Automatic annotation (TrEMBL):
Domain of life where this protein originates: Bacteria
Gene, per the UniProt record: rsmA
Molecular-function GO terms, alphabetical: 16S rRNA (adenine(1518)-N(6)/adenine(1519)-N(6))-dimethyltransferase activity; RNA binding
EC code(s) of this entry: 2.1.1.182
Ribosomal RNA adenine methylase transferase N-terminal domain boundaries: 23-195
Family statement: Belongs to the class I-like SAM-binding methyltransferase superfamily. rRNA adenine N(6)-methyltransferase family. RsmA subfamily.
Designated name of the protein: Ribosomal RNA small subunit methyltransferase A
Annotated compartments: Cytoplasm
Gene3D superfamilies for this protein: Ribosomal RNA adenine dimethylase-like, domain 2 (1.10.8.100), Vaccinia Virus protein VP39 (3.40.50.150)
InterPro entries named among the record's database cross-references: KsgA/Erm, rRNA_Ade_diMease-like_C, rRNA_Ade_Mease_Trfase_CS, rRNA_Ade_methylase_Trfase_N, rRNA_adenine_dimethylase, SAM-dependent_MTases_sf
SMART domains: rADc
């Protein structure tokens, strides 16, 4: 059980509770919430971040899947200050949270490491409603988020998040900052949505399909991973070497590939 709480961390929920008070203070200061902000915390757990966040905002939303922790949070904090949304963050509609007209969301959390990648993809769908996001993640995931083309860490996550967000690696966290301590090191990252005008893909769904296909078999050449999607003539027109691998191509080239495809005339219907 987590020391002094009576709650046993559940592996299926990826529970590692943040206990380092100095680090907690640094995270809250990085989030820098204003009283009127609409702030939502993912996975509040035992409330390590919840309490100091509540001290700085008029109202806080949290999303928690563990029913025992939901009950604990509802007993500990008054409903007029804290709204506890019981459920899975992977399916939660963050855009549904009530907020003042024209205001944006701030999302924060010590994300469960076992679902962090799919959760980041889910959260990217709400970029247009968000002012910023601050997350504690496994350091390996943060390394992938900020990786440069040509490195082994550079992948689909890098490209898709880099398209929507400016990403800053803010803080490091050793295992002993948690109870129970995880077997990995962790890091805090900030994601700030890019202006819509900076996102140059004409068809963002097509862009996402191209990126997913390219990294589907990352050891193969683009000529093979994008076979049936981009022809040799298309690669030639774009000046992209089809013998390169997905991890060698910068974000801008994936946007160019998708936009070239979007501009092609539809294939003639079969007779």
């Amino acid at each position: 059980m987590s020391a002094g709480t009576g709650h046993r961390a559940r592996k299926r929920f990826g529970q590692n509770f943040l206990v380092d008070r100095g680090l907690i203070g640094d995270i809250v200061n990085a989030v820098a919430p204003r009283r009127e902000d609409c702030v939502v915390e993912i996975g509040p757990g035992l409330g390590a971040l919840t309490e100091p966040l509540l001290a700085r905002v008029d109202h806080l939303h949290v999303v928690e899947i563990d029913r025992d922790l939901v009950a604990r949070l509802r007993r500990r904090f008054p409903a007029e200050r804290l709204t506890v949304n019981e459920g899975d963050a992977l399916s939660f509609d963050f855009a549904s949270l009530p907020r003042a007209a024209g205001s944006h969301l701030k999302i924060v959390g010590n994300l469960p490491y076992n679902i962090s990648t799919p959760l980041l993809f889910h959260l990217a769908d709400f970029a247009d409603s968000v002012r910023d996001m601050h997350f504690m993640l496994q350091r390996e995931v943060v390394e992938r988020m900020v990786a440069e083309p040509g490195s082994s860490d550079y992948g689909r996550l890098t490209v898709m998040l880099g398209y929507r967000f400016v990403i800053d690696w803010l803080l490091d966290a050793p295992p002993e900052a948690f109870d129970p301590p995880p077997k990995v090191h962790s890091a805090v990252v900030r994601l700030i949505p890019r202006p819509v005008a900076d996102r140059q893909a004409v068809d963002e769904a097509l862009f996402a399909r191209v990126v997913a296909a390219a990294f589907g078999q990352r050891r193969k050449m683009l000529r093979n991973t994008l076979k049936g999607i981009v022809s040799d003539a298309g690669f030639a027109a774009l000046g992209i070497d089809p013998t390169r691998r997905a991890e060698e191509l910068p974000l801008a080239d994936y946007v160019r590939l998708a936009n070239w495809l979007a501009a092609q005339p539809p294939a003639p219907a079969a007779a």
